[in-house]
Design brief:
alpha/beta, Alkaline Phosphatase, subunit A, 4-stranded antiparallel beta sheet
């Protein structure tokens, strides 16, 4: 069977350690029962800075961050898409029927979607564009929920968006069993308020139903699905799951007891996805399932995060920077970062202002990219309420500067953080046993050219040599 189709599942930041730990904790799980049937490859991100909005473009484009230059969500992608287009654009341009669901930096939509079976951009898209149009209802709900729960999970459910979503359920493919699961979650929150944190996972649960409906209906040659729900749990609750990894653990044991199963809970939802994925590829053995992370995580900080400094009134902050409402526009960003585009005539003044922006005498980090894109890196932790704010040489109160010292409900910071080693699991339903994994880690830049070669698409000269993976 030539040119097998590839279902490319993007399990963000999950290392093999978490996969194997879950299998030990849940021996009856689909993952535990099938891991021996998968080729288990360690991968290595070559990037100088490890963040998912950097390492996924490296995997998708076949060049590292020194070349593609992507550092933040919302950057202008015009130049990089022309010079180093992502994998899905190269495939679609050569007649490979492609589906995209949530992969990072997938906004804006392609001008011509005829080469795509479906296309739903990531949750940092500024607008709910999607193909086919029926997916826009889900994307609108998805974006709203993501904005509401950037750091603390909101108690709100967007009424209008939820109503429109309910009306679209038959077209979207959201299953009755999923709705029952969501209902149980909402009831559980009423009993145990802290379990609102699991709403982050349920966005992926709903999205996976929508994705599988598209897979069943359109049968693309290559399709991606991105989920961050396990990565989110690992960042926050690694210290609860693996307290022995920390030489200095400042959380008390009641915090550890409350959150110690949250990574396992997130993995259990992935396991439910995996059950359906394996069933799908076994019913359709022209498919091979790849499960990838562009990097991994490992233990980081055992210090509780009680507060973080956020820009919560961006208009007021920009007024302090002497910019009017027509001089700038906001772009979605991963909290606590703020991303804006600034009018050309105001950029010099804005740079000068950012150079003077200090918290307790320390300069606030910021970066600039092409076409007036600026990213401001907030998130200063555990500040005293009397923190000193300085902008353009003037002392400002938090409220005057549009800032808030936000209380973090679960006191979870980045108890785990990014490491270069990720994974690639390959499940071939036709293989009696998987091929042996290479001894050395696979450079993530090799994945895109390997997919291109698999489909007979010319590999651009700027990419590294491909390797046989499917």
């Amino acid at each position: 069977m030539s040119k097998r189709k590839i279902l490319f599942f993007e399990l963000n930041e999950v290392p093999l350690r978490i996969v194997r730990q879950f299998c030990g904790a849940a021996p009856g799980s689909t993952l535990a029962k099938n891991l021996h049937r998968m080729r288990q490859i360690r991968t290595q991100a070559p990037d100088s800075v490890l963040s998912p909005w950097i390492t996924w473009p490296t995997l998708h484009r076949g060049v590292d961050d020194a070349v593609h230059g992507l550092r933040f969500f919302g950057q202008d992608l015009t130049e990089v898409d022309a010079r180093y287009p992502p994998l899905w654009r190269l495939l679609a341009a050569h007649g490979v029927k492609t589906g995209v669901f949530g992969s990072l930096h997938s906004y804006p939509m392609p001008e011509d979607v005829r080469g795509y079976a479906f296309y739903m951009p990531d949750t940092f898209a500024p607008a709910p564009d999607a193909h086919p149009d029926t997916l826009a209802v889900f994307q609108d709900f998805n974006l709203t929920m993501a904005r509401k729960s950037a750091r603390n999970v909101s108690r709100d459910v967007p009424g209008k968006g939820a109503f429109q979503l309910l009306r679209a359920i038959p077209d979207l493919g959201i299953r009755a069993s999923t709705l029952a699961d969501v209902s149980r979650q909402l009831v559980s929150e009423r009993i145990h308020d802290w379990q609102r944190i699991r709403r982050r996972t349920y966005q992926s649960v709903l999205g996976f139903d929508v994705f599988m409906k598209q897979m069943e209906d359109t049968r693309p040659d290559f399709a991606t699905f991105f989920t961050n729900h396990v990565a989110s749990a690992m960042h926050r609750y690694w210290a609860a799951s693996f307290p022995g990894d920390f030489t200095a653990l400042e959380y008390d044991w009641s915090w550890v007891a409350r959150y110690r199963h949250e990574i396992e809970f997130a993995m259990s939802k992935f396991d439910a996805f995996l059950t359906r994925l394996i069933e799908f590829v076994e019913r359709n053995p022209d498919y091979v399932l790849w499960i990838a992370s562009s990097m991994g995580q490992a233990a980081s900080s055992g210090q509780p995060v009680k507060t973080q400094l956020y820009i919560t009134d961006l208009a007021r902050f920009m007024t302090c920077a002497e910019l009017g409402g027509d001089d700038w526009s906001e772009r979605p960003a991963m909290a606590p970062r703020i991303s804006v585009f600034v009018r050309e005539s105001k950029r010099d003044a804005f740079r000068a202002t950012l150079d003077t922006f200090k918290v307790n005498g320390e300069a606030v980090a910021w970066e600039e990219r092409s076409n007036g894109f600026f990213a401001i890196c907030m998130g200063q932790m555990n500040l005293d309420p009397s923190a000193r704010i300085e902008i353009n040489g003037q002392a400002r109160s938090l409220s005057e500067a549009g800032l808030s010292n936000v209380e973090i409900e679960d006191q979870a910071g980045s108890t785990a953080y990014h490491v270069p080693e990720g994974m690639l699991l390959v499940f071939d339903p036709l293989a009696a046993q998987p091929e042996a994994a290479p001894e050395l880690p696979l450079d993530t830049r090799q994945i895109a050219p390997s997919v291109l070669r698999h489909f007979g698409v010319p590999v651009p000269s700027y990419m590294v040599d491909p390797v046989p993976l499917a």
